[in-house]
Design goal:
Two copies of one chain form a homodimer. Chain A is an alpha/beta fold. The first copy, chain A, has helices at about 15-20, 45-50, 60-65, 120-125, 130-150, 170-190, 215-225, 270-275, 320-340, 375-390, 395-410, and strands at about 5-10, 30-35, 35-40, 60, 70-75, 75-80, 85-90, 95-100, 105, 110-115, 125, 160-165, 200-205, 230-235, 240, 245-250, 255, 260, 265, 285, 300, 305, 355-360, 365, 375. Chain A is built from eleven helices and 25 strands. In chain A, β23 (about 355-360) and β24 (about 365) form a beta hairpin. Chain A starts with a strand and ends in a 17-residue tail after the last helix.
């Protein structure tokens, strides 16, 4: 009898966790991703702000796959499925559609930016969710400074004003890293430009930053960012955006060439493309065992899944790496149990191990279990250590660590490159 | 009286050498390049073969410029000049044309691939002269393997056959690095694919590889490449190329999806755009003092210049980094002398300090002054040391060294990523 075939869609934190949890199971696993690398999303903001090179946060999926005998990789995009016939339809980059049969299908396709229909954000906003986003923002930021040096009038036009929308961890991290890049690095690079006129404006709808954190951490973040020159606008929303203007809901207009969109995500639209029921922000509806109701053998995990928190009012778990990893492991174990005749667990339980966010050089906030809360340098060191451990690949760890040490000691940012690799060649 | 203004076009080896030689001169210098980084061209082949990340061989020009008080940088493309009026016309990436007046103009714009009009090479060939070329080739090579794994029939179609044209240092280095990538790294990555069927064919018009080297070095290169599985075709030329076919001049057809073009360069067409007289392969005609005849204050250096070797028959110096560096330093000194009333040197003399080429892991050839010739491991170590010293930027040196150590010890290639950063956003 052929071994059951498990198809995992997405090589993010969730998909990789599922694959690893199936290491010893009597199944064949195919991991499908449109990229040949896993992206370490928590550090994308450092690529966008010239602190790390793109290769530092990307790890070749085949380097992981080669270590697991029952695991294969396919670089392709999933464009649909015949769920009755148990087949997913793949599209390869430069040739036809192919079919891949499955016994279990794990949808781990992640999320994309949610612009909430605010006019102009789709067109002019810079999201920060994948590696291409990060490189695009890096190029754009550096180009604004080059343009302003060549034409100083562009400073008044908003070339050096950067609006970051969203006061969650990503927004706080980007705002902190941008102000550091400008005032520590680009000020030296562009001695003829009034770099002190560069502005970072952080816009947050709620009345505090870092909503999921406790009040003292929120205050620490606000004070640190403000000290470092970030203009924080609490209780404000973006009404509309043009290439050189950001209009807030109170009517204030900011002359700004850059809008970083960190205000929210929605599920990857794959759920809908597969004909699965989706809930809030397009997230796939799953049962307590993370299986799609009425679709045995079809599972959804991580950002793409609407996983109940177990709390009141049908609240959902947040779209964070630890949820993806834990839900991925759980589904891997479920499938392993199903194929070996063991009893599966009945429901997924998320264990919150805490949250962290950096606020630029030597500052962070961390809230850990047992009521442990860290701020400032200790939190920052904890953040560094955790992220080094989480990074896939020893080479990437060495490289990131060396870069961090270098950046910290010298205030340098090596990879401040304006570089587009461009399209494939004709033919 | 205003200080004389020196405009240097191109931030390659030559342009940077000129700028540095003007460090103490009573002049203002503007370095113009279309990229905001200097590219370390000798290591591009390692980016193309996944040994180094793109950021390892690129160094931000402003990191160099900030250390020299009389030096400014402008990211722009030179599109023409009014040589009588002493003005160059610049084009900035996203706005209008600007004028830049000069007293001295140093053209250091480098070279591009010369396809000698062979049908199909322009369209299907992969040159290896700038960073985008290297990333494009890396993406293409890795995609061939992904495609072949998804559709095994593509192996017969030529997906895993790579033709490298040109047996000079670049061709030898690429061929050696490709065969190593395939048989040491991708063989592990793609256990289901018959990677042993991957072919590297090196095509050289002459009867030996590495024309400028002596016969024993040439034999060492040929033997090492052959041992490692490269098929070397001496005395052969490419007649025409299609997306999946390379036809040689003796009528042999190779089913191959990839043609790496390392068979020759021509000068950047800027010389012609400026209305300067050009000689062989578009190189700008210069006098013995590297000034353009009849155009006092207009100089050309490095690959873009037709610099006489001083030998018989009007032979020209080769288009190599040491020539660019030495000619750049010479012109910097000439300009410094002219602006301080010292007597300029009358003619440029190139001092040949030797040549080196790697042939993959632990093997190289080096021919140094005083008749010192090295092969094998000693040559390879000499090559590593020299290139580390030549690299701009301490951070890049650390990163490249760490990557080399890692690659050598583990046979790993970290940055084997298929990644296109894509276009700028609309708006």
């Amino acid at each position: 009898m052929a071994r059951p075939h498990v198809v995992i869609v997405g090589a993010g934190f969730g998909g990789l966790a599922t694959a690893k949890a199936l290491h010893r199971a009597p199944v064949d696993v195919t991991l499908v991703d449109r990229h040949n690398f896993h992206t370490f999303q928590p550090l994308l903001y450092q690529v966008a702000t010239s602190g790390l090179a793109s290769a530092d946060v990307a790890y070749p999926v085949r380097g992981i796959v080669a270590r697991q005998a029952n695991l294969a990789f396919r670089q392709a995009t999933v464009i649909g499925a015949d769920l009755e016939g148990r087949i997913v339809h793949l599209h390869h980059d430069d040739h036809d559609v192919a079919d891949l049969p499955f016994d279990h299908l794990v949808v781990a396709a992640g999320a994309t930016a949610n612009t909430f229909g605010i006019p102009g954000v789709d067109r002019h906003g810079f999201p920060l969710y994948n590696l291409a986003d990060a490189v695009r923002l890096r190029n754009h930021v550096l180009e604004r400074f080059e343009a302003a040096e060549a034409r100083p009038a562009l400073v008044d036009d908003g070339a050096l004003t950067f609006v970051v929308v969203g006061g969650g961890p990503t927004g706080v991290e980007v705002a902190g890293a941008l102000t550091e890049l400008f005032h520590r690095v680009l000020r030296r690079d562009l001695p003829r430009l009034p770099v002190e006129r560069a502005r970072v404006v952080l816009v947050e709808m709620q009345d505090q930053l870092l909503a999921p954190f406790r009040a003292p951490s929120q205050r620490h973040a606000l004070e640190t960012l403000t000290e470092r020159g970030v203009e924080v606008r609490l209780g404000a929303q973006v009404a509309r955006v043009r290439a050189d203007r950001v209009v807030l809901d109170d009517g204030e207009e900011l002359a700004a060439h850059t809008l970083v969109w960190a205000a929210g995500v929605q599920a990857n639209p794959l759920g809908r493309a597969l004909g699965l029921a989706t809930g809030r922000a397009g997230r796939i509806v799953v049962g307590a065992d993370l299986q799609v109701p009425g679709r045995p053998g079809v599972w959804a995990i991580g950002d793409v899944a609407a996983i109940a928190s177990g709390g009141r009012d049908g609240e959902l778990l947040p779209q964070l790496a630890p949820v993806a990893i834990q839900s991925g492991r759980f589904v891997g174990a479920q499938i392993a149990a199903a194929t070996t005749g063991r009893a599966p667990a009945t429901s997924f339980r998320y264990r919150d191990k805490g949250t962290m966010a950096t606020i630029g050089r030597s500052r962070a906030v961390a809230e850990l279990p047992l009521g442990i809360r860290l701020w400032g340098l200790p939190a920052w060191l904890a953040w560094l250590g955790l992220h080094l451990v989480m990074l896939a690949g020893f080479r990437n760890r060495i490289s990131v660590f060396a870069n961090w040490a270098w950046n910290w000691l010298t205030y340098d940012r090596g990879p401040r490159l304006i570089f587009r690799s461009g399209p494939r060649r004709a033919g």
